[in-house]
Amino acid sequence: MPIQRRRFLQWPAAAATAPLLASCGGGGGSGTPAPPPAPKKNVMVIVIDDLNDWVGFLGNNQVKTPHMDALAAESTNFRQAYCNEPLCNPSRSSAWSGLMPAQTGVFDNWASLKVNNPAAVLLPTWMASHGYEVAQYGKINHVYTEVPLTFPATLPASNLQCSGYPNVNPEGMFDWGASPADETAMPDYAYAQSGIDFLSRSHDKPFMLCVGMVRTHVAWYVPQKYLDMYPIDQVQVPQVPADDLADIPAQGKKLALFQNSHDCITRQNLWAEATRAFMASISFVDSQIGRLMQALKDSGRDQDTTVVLWSDNGFHLGQKFHWHKQALWETTTHVPFLVRQAGAARGQVVDAAVSLIDFMPTVLDITGVPAPYALDGRSLSPLLATPTRAWDHPVLMTNAAMDAQNKYALPNAGNPYDYAVRSNRWRYIRYRDGGQELYDESADPTEYTNVAGVAANADVITQLAALMPAR
Fold this sequence. Notes:
Layout: E1 42-48, H1 66-73, E2 76-82, H2 88-97, H3 101-104, H4 113-116, H5 123-128, E3 133-138, E4 176-178, H6 187-200, E5 207-213, E6 220-222, H7 224-227, H8 250-256, H9 261-267, H10 271-299, E7 305-311, H11 330-333, E8 334-335, E9 337-340, E10 348-355, H12 359-367, H13 381-385, E11 395-400, E12 417-422, E13 426-430, E14 436-440, H14 458-465
Parallel strand pairs: 1-5, 1-7, 2-10, 3-5, 4-6
Antiparallel strand pairs: 2-8, 2-9, 7-9, 11-12, 12-13, 13-14
């Protein structure tokens, strides 16, 4: 079953103890007054929960995402963007702090960044300490505003045998169905509306608006009209070879068959129905993003506001017979990542591998705000300026061993981490027990064939393994 999420209160917009960096005055001599500083650019960040790469602008022709596709047409589309750990809290803690999981100390959904690394600073807090008006609505860093949730009268609504009910709260159940609520009563509608209201007000300082969508996280309860967008007889489920796990090491098979969800789904003949609900959830979120983008245009600030959109991790829908995240394949780790930079070229694509820890340094670079410490990521501004420039910075990803309830990471469990490195061409996975997978993504984007055992690839493995922590 999926990880059950805990609700928290929203953190303060700025920490009272956040350091302010003083600017240095120039030496005298000419008496010519310094030119006024350039106006600071506004920033709007949209974060989506558990959205894999099923969007039109990343090549999916089945899912209807017109608003995100329109944003992509005005943005730089990083087509090979990856999370650094395929789980909500670890991924977001890294993205918002610019630090890898090894630095944040956050490997599960219950760990606290503030406790595990008190020196870490979240980007919204840092921006607030540098003169920005910061507003946050919805799920940002595994923290989200309380909004009443609505559920079908009967639970589970669809997945009768393996939804996790009643041991998992309804909001985190592996279930789906039509929500009895009108669209306007859905949490994501409320989060978008809060963002719209913020944009409609006047602001005497540059702003950073963050809006986090809780869908497409399970449970996939959305208004019926979004389910109606996908007639069940037209839904195409992922194509998975019957022997897809034949060349996967033991630890990979264990992750793939987590709780035997695929067997449970197919036994109930629900593969197409579940896929339909996931796509309906994407289209519901897409509609809310359309509302936000229209409000930005209506505010008159769209030309001086940088918009960034990303998702915290991917999600399997039966690929490799897996139905969750917390694995290190392409589908689990590949995420949308768009940057619509105010006043810059738009409609560009970047095919080099980048990661979510590049998000914070990129925003700081665009806005001219200094970094709070040495960041693990790097600014993507060079790629925003020249999308085709050479860029060879492979992405390191981590997956932690969990306890028997799949909740808490086990940092003292011997070799508790699986790692993956995604370069521009290759994905190399090394499991905690030494098992390996290697995929040539240029020739095998569906990762059907593990070529780790091919002698000619030994040098590739050596090079990529050198980027992983020592065992």
